[in-house]
Each structure stands twice: as C-alpha cells, then as structure tokens.
Amino acid sequence: MSSLSLLAPAKINLFLLIKERRSDGYHLIFTMLQKISLWDKIELSIDKGEKRGISLECPGNKSISGPENLAYQAAELFLEKAGLDLAVKIILRKKIPIGGGLGGGSSDAASVLKGLNELADLPFNGASLHLFGCSLGADVPFFLLEAPAAVGRGTGTELEVVSVPHGWYLLVYPGFSVSTRWAYENYVLTGQDQDTIFDAEEIIQTAMWRNDLERVITARYPEIGRIKDELMALGADAALMSGSGSTVVGSFLSQEAAHRAASSLQVNRGLHTLLVESL
After folding, report:
1. Of the candidates 274, 201, 264, 266, which has an alpha carbon nearest to the alpha carbon of residue 235?
2. Domain span holding position 179
3. How far apart are CA 136 and CA 266, in angstroms?
4. Contact at 8 Å (CB) between 158 and 152?
5. Is 121 an active-site residue?
6. Which pLDDT score is estimated for 22?
7. DSSP assignment letter at 147
C-alpha cells in the first residue's frame, strides 16, 4: 500500500465579472482566484493488491461521503483514464465550509488527481490533468496549478498566473450555503460590460473588487449585503462575496485590524469568522 497526506487549500475570488451566457447555459467570466491559508486535509492511499474500488470517508460529514463527492469523482475519472485496477481510499477532513464559495470541493478533487498521479508514478502530464480537471468543474484546473493566484477567463478554466501582493482576509460565513447552479441560472445580464483588458497592477487595486453575482444573491439573501456593509464599517479596504457565495471576504491592511473586526462580528453578531492570509 502507498499513501500520501495532502493539504487542499481554499480560494477566494478577488473579483468576478460575468461577460456573457453561452447557448449551452454556461457563462463566460473574468475572475481572479487567490489561494488562502485554509485547508481541507486528505489522506490518500492505493493498494494494488486489492480489487478496484473507491472508498471515501469524511469524518463528521457522512452526507458527503459518497459518489456525489467531487473527490470521489476525481478518483473514479483517474482510474478510468489510466486504465488502472487499484483500490483507492480517501479520508477527507473538511475545514473549508461546504457551499461557501471557497472552492473546497474543487480543491479536494484537484488534490486527489495530483496525489493519485504521484502514487501511480506520474502517468499523466500537466496538460492531461488540466483536461481532467475541466471535466470535473470550472475551479478544479486552478487548484491543479502550483501558483497561488491566477486570472481565469472563459468558463474560468483559461488561466493566466499573476503575482498578487500578500493580503490579510477575514472570511465571514453567514451560516447558510448558496447553490452555484441557482446563482448562475438566476443571473440576468444587464447589457454590455466594460472592456476587461487590465494589466496586473490595475487588476489588484481594491477599486476593481466586484462580484456580479452579488446582485442576484443579495436580493434573496440580504444578510450577505449586511455583512459587507459591516466589514467596511469595521475598517476593511474592500469587501465582496467570494464566488457564488455565501462567504463574504473583507480585505484588511494588517492582521491586527482583521482580528479586531473578527472579534466585533463574533461578539455582536455571533457570526462565524476565519482570519486567513494569501498563500
């Protein structure tokens, strides 16, 4: 038996612009993705002596311990493409909120793909793994990258590595999840958007922080808008919803400032907060 211990990081979107909707229902987007210091932990093992099969355990989260889990689907896809007859065991310890717009499921899937490729003596190159990732989900290819930040275009899978200054972020999870499918299905384009050709320096200015999905999601979940306003009142340079929500991200100049804001939101509102930094 061979095994690996893996860390699957979360991500935040520093902006998310929706450009158009394709005929197949998918949206073309322009986004910046940043990995942060929040991880799921994965114990991955293979046994060549056992009959082919996949076992996934998620302690404390039995509802996501089956074939519907993206990590399970990643293992299934890998075995199919590699033509390998292996027993795969995955133990997934979740720290990233489920349905919070932080990419936990996609990151888990990417870690399983990379881990199995290593355990199986690297049968696939990066380009092949990228294609596998694209078939699993739009955020998976980003987590296959070693780089901590990238700009995503198309459906989010056309990636360009960028350099982003270090940042302190306060994540505020409002206690409910938002369906990505629902968010995009209910988003209505409101005319031609501005040009999206920026240089890297301009992209990362906080004035650029924007998430087009907030319009539809805050209409149904006004708590997200309230949290944004509170973060700004508590000294955040910028605040926006990450991805399709529901986590709201506040950017702070220092760890101390973010910590003060976290304490206020926990004491006065009982909100679940996490203080993280960019990787």
Report:
1. 264
2. 168-277
3. 36
4. yes
5. no
6. 72
7. S
